[in-house]
Structures are given as structure tokens and as C-alpha cells.
Amino acid sequence: MALPLSRSERLLKAAAPVMEQALRMRFVTEVTAGTISDTDYADYLEIEAAFVETATRLHGLAVWGAPDRTALERNARAVHALTTTQADYFRDARAAWPVPARPDAARRAEVLSRYALDAAREGGYPAVMTMLFAAETLYLTWCTRAHERGAVPDGAIRAWVALHADQAFRDGVRALAAEVDALPDDLPQERLTHWFTGMLEAEIAFHDAVFG
């Protein structure tokens, strides 16, 4: 007899159509094929750097709402990584990139931060874990495929893709799945699915905004 699916596995199953749509985004396709333009990636650097600030706030809220020391420490480490390693990447990549971002880039992509912060205020720790599980599963999946089988350009783009395909990132996604699995049983699965698919839909709008 097959074991019942965990909460995270049920989320992945329920959201599979939206996940597949996200994996076919123009941004993912062009980065994987090595065809993204310098101007479009400049805009991505601008909007993703802005979302890193939002992700820092999400993990900070998760520190506040962490149910145990393990969760507290994991989210604290994420805050540190976002404000050091990832902040350094964006500062260096933007400084070295051959063209600047278009002036309205960050404004065009506000949808992701707006959705994530509103849901986090409403749903607290469970919403944060569910949304981050969605976003990081998406990135692990497409970056692993691009890293292993794509024609990702050398330099800043390859470094960014590789960061989201390495073992440390994979372990982080696994830890998020475990946090989702440990959420209270009285929290309806439908509510988790709403947060998960909503985050993926916001990710699609966010990445489409790269192209103006």
C-alpha cells in the first residue's frame, strides 16, 4: 500500500499545472537558451535585487513566528545570506553589467512583493513557508535544468543559475518542504494551495515584467 502524500507533496501535485506554466516563462526559456538580451537581464538584476529585500522581510517575519529553534536558526541564516552573499552578487553584477536597467524596471515588477507581503501579513509563518517553498521549488527546478542541459551564458548569468542549482540550495528547498509538512493539521490544505499557486502566478507576472 502506498504511503499517503505529505502536505508538501500534495501542494506540488495540486499546483502542477501552474508550475509547468511558470517553467515555460519567456525569461526561463531565454536564460536557458542563452538568448536573453543585455537590456532585459539588466532589468532582471534591478527587479530581482528589489525582491531580495522582500525575501529578507519574509524570512525576518518567519524568525518572529518560528515554532522551534531549528526553524528560527534556518530563517536567521537566510536573512544573513540575503543581506550578504546575494546583496554582494547584485551590487557586483549591476556594476559590471554592460548596460543599465530601464528606469521603470522595478516599478513594473512590484506584483511579486505586493502579493508576498500581503499574504505574509495575513497568514504569518505558514504563509511565508508555503510561498517560499513555491518560489524556491520553481527556481531549483528551472535552474537545475538550465545548469545541466542549457546554454546559459558565462559570467553573472551562469553564476546566478549555478547558485540556485547547487546542493546548498537543494537542501534549503528540502528544509522548506519539511517546514510545510510540519504545519498544524488544522490549517486547511486548500489555504496552503492558495498561497502556493498565488505565489507562482505572481512569479510569472514578475518575470514577464522583465520584458517591459
Oligomer type? single chain
Shape: globular
Number of domains: 1
Strand content: under 5%
- Going by helix content, strand content and strand pairing, the class is mainly alpha
| Head-to-tail CA distance between termini | 51 Å
Q: Class, according to the CATH hierarchy?
A: Mainly Alpha
Percentage of residues assigned to helices: over 70%
**Count of helical stretches:** 10
Task: Summarize the biggest pleated sheet.
Answer: none
Structure, briefly:
Helix content is 79%, strand content 0%. By secondary structure, it is mainly α. InterPro entries: Haem_Oase-like_multi-hlx.
Describe the structure.
With 212 residues, the protein is mainly alpha-helical. The chain is globular and about 50 Å long. It has one domain (8-208): Heme Oxygenase, Chain A (Up-down Bundle). It contains ten helices and no strands. It has helices spanning 7-14, 16-23, 26-33, 38-65, 69-96, 105-108, 110-149, 156-163, 167-181, 189-208.
Jot down its keywords:
single chain; 212 residues; mainly alpha; Heme Oxygenase, Chain A; globular; Haem_Oase-like_multi-hlx
How is the topology of this model organized?
Layout: H1 7-14, H2 16-23, H3 26-33, H4 38-65, H5 69-96, H6 105-108, H7 110-149, H8 156-163, H9 167-181, H10 189-208
InterPro entries: Haem_Oase-like_multi-hlx
